[in-house]
Structures are given as C-alpha cells and as structure tokens.
Design a protein that fits this description.
The complex is a heterodimer. By secondary structure, chain A is α+β, with helices and mostly antiparallel strands. In chain A, 51% of the residues lie in helices and 13% in strands. Chain A is built from four helices and two strands, in the order αααββα. In chain A, a hairpin with a 4-residue loop joins β1 and β2. Chain B is of the alpha/beta class. Chain B has twelve helices and eight strands. Chain B has an eight-stranded mixed beta sheet with strand order 3-4-2-5-1-6-7-8, with helices on both faces. In chain B, β3 and β4 form a beta hairpin. The longest helix of chain B has 16 residues. In chain B, 49% of the residues are buried. Classes of the chains: A alpha+beta, B alpha/beta.
Chain lengths: 90, 268
C-alpha cells in the first residue's frame, strides 16, 4: 500500500469500477439485448439442445463479448459426461 | 468558398455541446475564416445566449425554412468577430417544424458563402438529432468522463454510423485532471478504449468557462485559459494541423511524483 493510500488518498479508485460497469452495459446496449433477455435466450438454447444432447444445465454460460468492431455471442455448453449418463440410465 | 459542415452532438444533454459549438466557431473565425453557427435545438434556444447575441434576434431558422425571411436576414453577425455569424433556433416551435431535407437544403445554401458551418445539435436521438446530422460532413461527439454520458455517446456513435455519417470524432469535455490522477475519474485512455473512436480534443474543467458564458463571451478568445486553449487546439486540428494532445492528466505533476516516490519507499 502506498503512503497516500495509507493516509486515505487515492483509496477508492472508482474510475476502475466505472470502466468495468460501462464495458458491461455497452456490450448489452450494442447487441440490443438486456441481461434478462440474455438469460431467457440461455434457457431456450438449453431446451433446444437438450432435445439432442444431455446438457449439464448448471454450467451453461452464455456471454456477449466484443473486439474493436465485432460483437460475439459465446455459448459454452458442457455436456453431461458419458459415464455419468450411463449410470443415470441404469 | 465551399464550407465544411460540422455537427456537434452528444446524446446526453448538458455535456457542453453548445459551449463547444460557440467556442469552435469563435476559434475558427479567429483564423480569419467565415463561420456560421446554427442552433438546431428548436424550442430550446441557447446558442444565442452563450454567444452573447440574444438581444439581436429578429428572425430565426424556422422563419427561413418556412419562407418568412431570407437566409441572410436570419444571420446575426457576432459582436467581436465580424466574420462569425449565428442562425438562431425558433423558441416557440418544436423539432417537427424542420425536416432533414430542410437542413440539407440550408447547408447547401450556406456552403458557397462560408468556410465552416457548425451545427449545434439538440440532445437525444430523435428528430432534432437526425435533422442536425443530415447535412454534416463531419460529426463531433461531446462527452464528459461520466458513465451516463459515455454510454449515451456510444449510442450516438452507433446511430451516426448507421446514418453513414461516421466515423465521428470525440471531444472529451470537463475533465478534472486531479480526479483522473487519483483514479476517481475515467481518463482519456479509458474512454477511447470503451468507445473505439478517434479523439479530436480534451477540454479540462475550467471555472473561467462559467464566467465567460455568464458574460456571453467565448472562452476560446481567452487563450490564457486552459479550456480556451483546448478549444483553439481543436479548431487547429479541424484545420488539418497536427497539434499534440495536452497531457492534462499525466501523473508527472508534483503530486504524482511525490506519490510514486512514497510508494517506491513504502515497498522498498
């Protein structure tokens, strides 16, 4: 900790949290989808994919990312391991 | 003469569009160029008071569009700079009195008479904003280092690109260097990183802007002031000059140096 942080100056660093919050909100603004709607999309995706595969629904992650000018919807959908599936079927 | 038409916009209100328009107008005109500033904020006229010309208004912009007067009759000559003009907004009408086509026609009528046409856009993303950017060759986006203003700037940048008026350039207004230094205000780099847009100027917070506005005098003519200097630099960049960006938030001030020394000592 620096001297100034010790004496209470420069302690909050609120700009960092401003930037992080902005980046998150802009990802949703730019894609035109609110965090709540993204959650609904995630549920729909799980429904569809579950018709064909055993999805580990607890660990599905749907995120919006962005590079400089490209936006991306990234879905990480883990499947239930085959050995667990066999066990469950028995 | 073939004027370049520049629209100054922001999305969020109160970030300094009108101040920027008045001062860029004065700064460009101080180079001897013929400049006209148009207040496109119909119903909320303000550029006239910022420029100190509120007592001279006879006709306004809607009068021109609706044919009640000639364009020349609505142009008010500045008190100090004889090659600077204002076309005021109507105060008793609303934005629907003018269409984007009207704006394009007005721009084309002004182009041969001037070197620069600056349009002060209203806040928001509706009709008034669309009117203001319709004739633009270049759009300048003004923002403050605050999350709400930056978020709205991002939205506006997207709309400007969708209207094929991009890429705009950013004016970062009302920066408090001391707060940036201690990590309590978004800095230039943070904002450019988030918005992915090219910068055209950084204007520091300066009490003299309030004083100048109170008096209806452009701060750009007070080159002893930091904000005035910043507006002059933006004008020079518009004119194609390579002016290095002011490092108003660098950590190399006295305080920053002491802070770093202390930190080094603390860790050693």
């Amino acid at each position: 900790m620096s001297f100034f942080e010790k004496v209470g100056l420069g302690r909050s660093r609120s700009a960092k949290s401003a930037k992080e919050r902005l980046q998150l909100v802009l990802v949703h603004d730019r894609a035109g989808i609110s965090p709540g709607k993204l959650e609904a999309l995630k549920d729909d995706l799980i429904d569809v994919i579950s018709r064909h595969l055993d999805v580990d629904t607890e660990n599905v992650e749907i995120t919006l990312t962005r590079d400089r000018d490209q936006q991306r919807l990234v879905a990480d959908i883990p499947l239930v391991p085959a050995r667990l599936r066999r066990r469950a079927a028995r | 003469m073939t004027a370049k038409i520049v629209t100054i916009t922001s999305g969020k209100g109160g970030v300094g569009k009108t101040t920027a328009t008045a001062n860029l107008g004065a700064a460009l005109a101080s180079h001897g160029l013929r400049v006209v500033c148009i207040d496109a904020d119909i119903g909320l006229r303000n550029l006239d008071v910022v420029m100190g010309l509120e007592n001279r208004i006879v006709y306004d912009f809607v009068d021109v569009v609706e044919g009640r007067c000639k364009l020349r009759q609505a142009m008010i000559r500045d008190k100090r700079i004889e090659n600077l003009f204002l076309i005021p907004a109507a105060q008793t009408r609303d934005k629907s009195a003018v269409s984007p086509q009207d704006m394009v026609r007005l721009g084309e009528e002004l182009r041969p008479e001037f070197d620069w046409v600056l349009i002060d856009s209203p806040a928001g993303i509706e009709r008034g904003f669309r009117n203001a950017i319709a004739p633009a060759d270049l759009v300048l986006i003004v923002t403050n280092p605050e999350v709400s203003a930056v978020r709205d700037a991002d939205r506006i940048i997207g709309l400007i690109e969708a209207e094929q008026k991009g890429p705009g350039r950013l004016i970062l207004n009302r920066v408090k260097p001391e707060m940036v230094r201690r990590g309590d205000m978004l800095g230039t780099e943070d904002i450019l990183d988030v918005l992915a847009i090219e910068l055209i100027g950084i204007v520091p917070e300066d009490e003299r802007v309030t004083v100048a506005t109170n008096q209806g005098v452009p701060i750009a003519l007070d080159t002893g002031s930091k904000a005035g200097q910043a507006f002059q630099n933006i004008a020079r960049r518009l004119l194609g000059e390579e002016v290095p960006f002011e490092s108003i938030e660098s950590r190399d001030g006295f305080f920053g140096r002491i802070s770093r020394l202390m930190r080094a000592g603390g860790e050693g």
